[in-house]
């Protein structure tokens, strides 16, 4: 098999020289027959191996553990920067010099609180991670549904790096029935465009039972990013996680603590079925094609509660959409802060279509980063986050010690079908909530404080809010980047024209750019 064909199938060619850019032609055919070479080679080797071969194999198997232990001891003694990753949990014995070791298998809570022991350094290195993708029943809000988990969890494990590092991430696809790719959202992919994870564009899918190793550098980048599937609507079913790039030379204000906040919408039906319905000429939830259905629930850091007493079925356009009937109520996310401390919240929207307002009761925020770009602080009581966007905000824990609600509120005025599907979200005010507790306060005590008015243009604590219109980002000229970059030279003939169109074609809704 040629190196080009092997690369397109997801093989790791790094051990055999430079990996070639994958070919995306005939992806379906290539993904179907990927296991054939393995099967043929296996039968051939089994039929030809003799007793001498088995003796060598057995001896090697006995010596391998000892060799591995010696290698690990050598790396620890020499301060190697190679990162060993546990095949399931995504973290392992990670060494950063002779006197420091990153936590072994940090919990999901520690990862979301960035309490992994990661060392921020200006010395670039290669960091290795392993992501195992499985399809399992999971109940993020109490209702169980088939989901795609990353190392047994959703959100997936935290990936951390320093600016200038090289990331080497092996994705093992243990799903029995679906190919996949992983996209590194916001990463520039300088000279590594084939590692972008865009299915059918930069690579073919990783077939069931196969793996692919992504390798790219993060030189010149810092801030908040995330990774997710780029096949169909798989990330809606759980295939996503945070990616944080640290920089010892950050320009943003210093803080005493950091936390990740990932929020998004939840559909209890399989996302690929919803996507298929969405692309049909007569979707079940609306009379017009191209309309996005309202979600069944909202999540904050992969969890939320459900109203188990409500009907398990939702009706759209006089068609009943069945919901899972087993419900355990779910739970909400909780985190703790120290009084007087400055905390950086890294906001990531993994939403499919729902825009959110993020806020914390009684606490003002300062926006300091937008999509991986450090900006001069922008005060606000809330942040409008569209699907896929990332922000960093700084909050000072300067209120009365107690429990306060963290709110990720769906902006229902942006819903394409505002009159439908609201009954299941109404009991929760169309928001996913968490609890922020001051240290020493019993987290079970009723929260204090009040929510901010998300429509108020003027707030006494910060004067004018920066948000002008609902369903809109910040005014383009408001954020001021803190790092100066040379503008690209634009010639008089450097014009590009785009026409976007959505139409029915053979009973299927298709979207095109310039007719393609």
Automatic annotation (TrEMBL):
Q: By its UniProt entry, which Pfam families does this protein fall under?
A: Cu-oxidase (PF00394), Cu-oxidase_3 (PF07732)
Q: What superkingdom heads the lineage? A: Eukaryota
Q: Where is this region: Disordered?
A: 1-23
**Entry's transmembrane regions:** 49-71
Q: Which GO terms describe its molecular function?
A: copper ion binding; oxidoreductase activity
Keywords attached to this Swiss-Prot or TrEMBL record, sorted alphabetically, are:
Copper, Membrane, Metal-binding, Oxidoreductase, Transmembrane, Transmembrane helix
What name goes with this protein?
Answer: Multicopper oxidase
Checking PROSITE patterns in the record gives: MULTICOPPER_OXIDASE1
- Sequence ranges assigned to domain Plastocyanin-like in this UniProt record: 134-249, 259-419
Matching InterPro entries? Cu-oxidase-like_N (IPR011707), Cu-oxidase_2nd (IPR001117), Cu-oxidase_fam (IPR045087), Cu_oxidase_CS (IPR033138), Cupredoxin (IPR008972)
Q: Read off the Gene3D superfamilies from this record.
A: Cupredoxins - blue copper proteins (2.60.40.420)
**Family to which this protein belongs:** Belongs to the multicopper oxidase family.
* CDD domains registered for this protein in UniProt: CuRO_1_Diphenol_Ox, CuRO_2_LCC_like
